[in-house]
Write a structure and sequence with these properties.
about 120 residues, four-stranded antiparallel sheet, seven-stranded mixed sheet
Length: about 120
Amino acid sequence: VQLLESGSGLVKPSESLFLTCSVSGGPITTNSVVRGWIRQSPGKEPEWVGAIDASGTTYYNPTLESRTSNSRDTSKNQYTLQLSFDAPSGTAVYYCARGSQGWSPWGQGTQVTVSS
C-alpha cells in the first residue's frame, strides 16, 4: 500500500486547508482499516487530526473537530481532509496514513504553512 498527499501548501489564517490522499495497492473500503491524517508541527510530537473508516464513518481529534471535515471518493480511491484555521499554529507537515493496529504506512508528508 502506498499513500501520497497533495493539496495546498500555503494557507492564510481564516482560510481552509484541503488535502487529498491518493491510495494505491488496496481499496480504501477495506474492512477493519481506517484512513487517517496526522500532522507534526516543528518541535512537537505528531498529532492525530482525524480519520474515516471503511464504511465512511468519520472520527476527529476533539480539539480540532469543530474545524475539521473528512470525506472520500471511492471511485478515485482517495480521501480528503478539510481543516480551517484561525491562527498560524496549524503550520505543520501533514501526513495521511493507514490505520490497522497502528499507523502504517504513512505518506511522505506535505508541508503546510499558515501565514498571512
